[in-house]
Amino acid sequence: MSLAATLQELKDSTAARIANASTLDELEAIRVETVGRKGVLAGAGKDMAKVAKEDRAAMGQLLNAVKSAIESALEERTNAFQAAALEARLDAEWMDLTAPAPGVQPGALHPVTQVQRYLEEVFTSMGFTVLSGPEVETEFHNFDALNIPPSHPARDMQDTFWLEGGHLLRTHTSPVQVRGMKRLGAPLRMIAPGRVFRNEEVDPSHEHTFYQLEGMMVDREVSIAHMLYFMKTLLKEIFQREVAVRLRPGYFPFVEPGFELDIQCLLCGGAGCPVCKYTGWVELLPCGLVHPNVLRAGGIDPGQWNGFAFGLGLTRLAMMRYGIDDIRLLQAGDLRFLNQFR
Ligand code: PHE
User: Fold this and answer.
1) Which of 88, 114, 152, 340 has its CA 20 to 30 A from that of 124?
2) How confident is the model at residue 236, as a pLDDT?
3) Does 309 contact ligand 1 (Cβ within 6 A)?
4) Hey, where are the domains in the chain?
5) Taking the domain 111-341, which CATH number applies?
């Protein structure tokens, strides 16, 4: 076959292959094979030497014509493929700008935090300072400074998570009494809300982790009447109504005399339910006059000053306030529960 016929034949067959190609990869393979640097046409160029001198110019033109015909066919087909790909992508990746935006759910305060914030407001309005202390406490602040020496039976009343080196997870917020006295001196009005820990069996009314709110007032000639006034004001603010209370003697080494202030169970109205252990009363507010030894540990002269202290069960209070009958719900992180308090 003459070179001219070969070129003509190459042009036609390549045109057919390009028309039948269905991917960009196929087109690329055809390009390399025909018009590529080491392709068929490059080979044909070398055969030019064998062409008769007078035919060479025409043959050169034919070669170029075949080459550009193949190249433009490739380009046309490539463009068509790319346009189709773009079309498919535009079809798949679209956005309905008129569709309603997905709902945004901002975070909300935990019910215990809500009660805590509210009480902080109540107490600051009565001249109390809000303090906090460390959750990892020293044995000294959690016990000794509160008139609970080693081997005192009261230590067993609070099942303690002991850490290494004389440290522990504080079992109550009372150590902040001592820190507060040392820091601010007398006279003093302070509260200390915070998380406390006890190595307890968990059930609907006991958790190993819960919240208390400690309160302390130190001044001259503070009496039980003062203490009762603040406690009643506090309860009225919390429950927004008169709540039946009762005062029982209570023993805590850091107060003398000490009391247990109970409120009538708001969940069952005193009829008896699991939260009040079917007694109709809920222990809410242990309190008493600050023991002289505790004032001394805080660097305050018990001959000049005295005071009252209380330890409010913040978690239990939140349960009363919102009618929650299982303490475990508060730490479970279940949004079906938490969403009720937004
Ligand atoms: N710290 C005591 C407790 O957690 C409560 C308390 C505080 C009692 C202040 C009296 C005065 O059990």
Assistant:
1) 340
2) 87
3) yes
4) 3-92, 111-341
5) 3.30.930.10
